[in-house]
């Protein structure tokens, strides 16, 4: 059980990137398309699956690939391996304005549940899995869809929150009501549920959704101030006002299609 | 004997902070021994405990007991680690297990229903498609129908030259005039194509291929085919077909955005089936029209007999279009033979057309 210890540094304020330092022989995994640069001596290796089961056999790899297909991610994960003789660095950039959150899985009990497109990078040995959200209401109206990402292990993981980050530890029984779509990640001990906002008028004219996400403790939650979907909606609205065409933003109705049943893109 | 390994947990004392404290939990006879990392150990009798599942997909156990100072102390244990404790005190966990089972059953039922709803909607739409088609067709004004007819004709022009003079053209017009009822707006076109085919477009447009005229032995045979096609116009069959296949495309399109191939295939299948029902009616109405116009219905019968012979001789290349959308020729001939004999010989006036000259004018 040799998890790689990764030293890292986060740069920038609103558009961040994280630089990860690898000792000789160490490795990190990143989502496809987030790598920013890497130093000489780092070998990029695209592997089938998520890099968590190095000797999982063909069937294990196939399962991993199937899971990644479900979450809408690419079938391949890129592993950055330091083949040099000294320390080398590789950097991963956030895809849109926000904050990169370093999470030490060993400090939070080894498991983190996060929204499926907030994962950025991790030390090799952190396993990326999918976790089915088994509450119909939350899957439909919680803003994250039915598929969440599960990070297991005891290394460092880097997740991305849109806008400004709120990191909060909830005491047992303490409940926070959150706009759907603002949940980035939470510990598995947190109860994630939805609550009917109760006022159709508010939903129609107040611009808020019909449902709140409710998070209750104990456990740690990470919230984002700007879900990508909200920013995308504004951009689409603005381009439509400027005369461009655009398709409907993600409304509750859009959640009824079979395609979006397997993951509301937020 | 060897003691079971201590279970890792997180301890949340009543009135403590939100973060809780790492702790180890051990069984000590009838009590639970809680060893927080940074405070003195506690003994809690098993009988005073309450356990419930919580967290993401019920993956955690919250084990609570009342504190002397009011409030509750709580232990958080992962489902994966709780095994040894559950083995000793199964009753403590029974309630939580039940809740977990109920919730996963609810999930399965719910997800099944969610998957079924679109399917049920599609089935309901398909079942009511004929009814919906009738309603839509009833609302289409004649002006739109004429526009569609003009569009079909324009496409026909692209595929083959229209013959608009000469004996063959005149013959088609004469037969058309004889068959048309007073006040009907019908136009007859002759196109230069080898296939034995004729078709009716919305708006009273009837198109005959020159290949059909070449095959026919008399004007009465052509009259039979035209009467059948006029019946299609009368019954607005083409329009229905267009509306219906558009409806099918919409339904399959809505079912899944990119099942275009399946949608097209199903839409075609629908057209085919629809036509076979409609053909029967067109044959019946066509015969009525022939009788009204005093045209010998035997012509219609003879033409289909000619078709059947050609079919048997395997000249498939020449007759796909008319046959593929029409009921099996054999079946049709049997029906026509019966219908023409039972209708009895009404008064008949031959069509005054020199068919030899017509056939001669077509290369
Ligand atoms: Zn027909």
TrEMBL record, chain A:
First and last residue of the signal peptide:
none
Q: Which InterPro entries match?
A: AIM24, AIM24_sf, Trp_RNA-bd_attenuator-like_dom
**Record's protein name:** TIGR00266 family protein
Q: Which source organism?
A: Zoogloea ramigera
Higher taxonomy:
Bacteria, Pseudomonadati, Pseudomonadota, Betaproteobacteria, Rhodocyclales
From TrEMBL, chain B:
Q: Which biological process annotations from GO are given for this protein?
A: proteolysis involved in protein catabolic process
Stored Gene3D superfamilies: Metalloproteases ('zincins'), catalytic domain
Question: Which cofactors, if any, are listed as required?
Answer: Zn(2+)
What are the Peptidase M48 domain coordinates in residue numbering? 175-338
Q: Which domain of life is it from?
A: Bacteria
Matching InterPro entries = Mito/Outer_Membr_Metalloprot, Peptidase_M48
This chain belongs to the protein called Peptidase M48 domain-containing protein
Specify one Pfam family.
Answer: Peptidase_M48
Q: Which family does it belong to?
A: Belongs to the peptidase M48 family.
Record's signal peptide: none
> Any binding details for the cofactor?
Binds 1 zinc ion per subunit.
GO (cellular component) term, any one: membrane
Which residue ranges does UniProt annotate as crossing the membrane? Answer: 107-129
Alphabetically, the GO molecular function entries are: metal ion binding; metalloendopeptidase activity
Q: Which UniProt keywords apply?
A: Hydrolase, Membrane, Metal-binding, Metalloprotease, Protease, Transmembrane, Transmembrane helix, Zinc
């Amino acid at each position: 059980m040799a998890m790689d210890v990764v030293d890292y540094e986060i740069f920038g304020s609103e558009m961040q990137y994280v630089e990860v330092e690898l000792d000789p022989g160490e490795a990190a995994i990143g989502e496809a398309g987030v790598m920013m640069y890497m130093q000489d001596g780092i070998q990029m290796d695209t592997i089938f699956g998520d890099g968590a089961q190095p000797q999982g056999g063909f069937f294990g790899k196939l399962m991993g690939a199937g899971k990644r297909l479900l979450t809408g991610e690419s079938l391949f994960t890129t592993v950055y391996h330091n083949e040099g003789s000294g320390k080398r660095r590789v950097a991963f950039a956030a895809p849109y304005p926000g904050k990169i959150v370093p999470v030490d899985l060993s400090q939070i009990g080894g498991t983190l549940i996060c929204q499926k497109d907030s994962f950025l990078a991790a030390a090799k040995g952190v396993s990326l899995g999918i976790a089915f959200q088994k509450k119909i209401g939350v899957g439909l109206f919680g803003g994250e869809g039915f598929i969440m990402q599960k990070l297991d292990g005891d290394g460092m993981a880097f997740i991305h929150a849109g806008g400004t980050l709120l990191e909060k530890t909830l005491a047992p029984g303490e409940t926070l009501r959150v706009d759907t779509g603002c949940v980035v990640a939470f510990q598995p001990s947190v109860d994630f549920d939805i609550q009917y906002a109760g006022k159709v008028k508010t939903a129609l004219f107040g611009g808020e959704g019909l449902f709140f996400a409710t998070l209750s403790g104990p456990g740690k939650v990470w919230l984002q101030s700007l879900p990508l979907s909200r920013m995308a909606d504004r951009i689409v609205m603005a381009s439509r006002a400027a005369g461009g065409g655009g398709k409907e933003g993600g409304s509750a109705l859009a959640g009824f299609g079979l395609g979006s049943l397997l993951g509301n893109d937020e | 004997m060897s003691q079971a390994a201590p279970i890792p947990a997180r301890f949340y004392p009543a009135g403590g902070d939100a973060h809780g404290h790492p702790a180890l939990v051990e069984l000590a006879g009838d009590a639970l021994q809680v060893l927080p990392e940074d405070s003195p150990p506690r003994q809690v009798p098993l009988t005073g405990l309450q356990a419930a599942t919580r967290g993401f997909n019920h993956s955690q156990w919250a084990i609570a007991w009342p504190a002397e100072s009011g409030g509750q102390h709580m232990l958080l244990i992962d489902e994966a680690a709780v095994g040894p404790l559950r083995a000793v005190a199964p009753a403590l966990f029974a309630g939580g297990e039940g809740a977990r089972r109920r919730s996963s059953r609810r999930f399965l039922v719910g997800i099944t229903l969610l998957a079924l709803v679109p399917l049920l909607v599609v089935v309901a739409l398909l079942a009511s498609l004929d009814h919906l088609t009738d309603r839509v067709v009833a609302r289409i004004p004649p002006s739109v129908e004429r526009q569609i007819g003009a569009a079909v004709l324009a496409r026909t022009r692209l595929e083959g030259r229209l013959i608009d003079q000469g004996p063959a053209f005149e013959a088609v017009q004469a037969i058309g005039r004889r068959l048309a009822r007073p006040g009907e707006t019908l136009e007859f076109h002759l196109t230069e194509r080898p296939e034995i085919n004729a078709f009716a477009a919305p708006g009273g447009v009837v198109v005959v291929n020159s290949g059909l005229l070449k095959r026919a032995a008399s004007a009465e045979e052509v009259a039979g085919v035209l009467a059948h096609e006029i019946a299609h116009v009368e019954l607005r069959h083409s329009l229905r077909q267009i509306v219906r296949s558009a409806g099918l495309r919409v339904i399959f399109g809505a079912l899944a955005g990119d099942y275009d191939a399946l949608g097209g295939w199903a839409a075609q299948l629908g057209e085919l089936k629809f036509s076979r029902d409609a053909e029967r009616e067109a044959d019946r109405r066509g015969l009525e029209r022939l009788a009204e116009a005093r045209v010998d219905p035997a012509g219609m019968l003879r033409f289909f007999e000619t078709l059947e012979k050609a079919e048997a001789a395997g000249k498939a290349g020449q007759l796909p279009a008319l046959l593929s959308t029409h009921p099996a020729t054999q079946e049709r001939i049997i029906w026509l033979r019966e219908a023409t004999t039972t209708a009895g010989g009404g008064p008949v006036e031959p069509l005054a057309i020199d068919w030899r000259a017509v056939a001669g004018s077509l290369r």
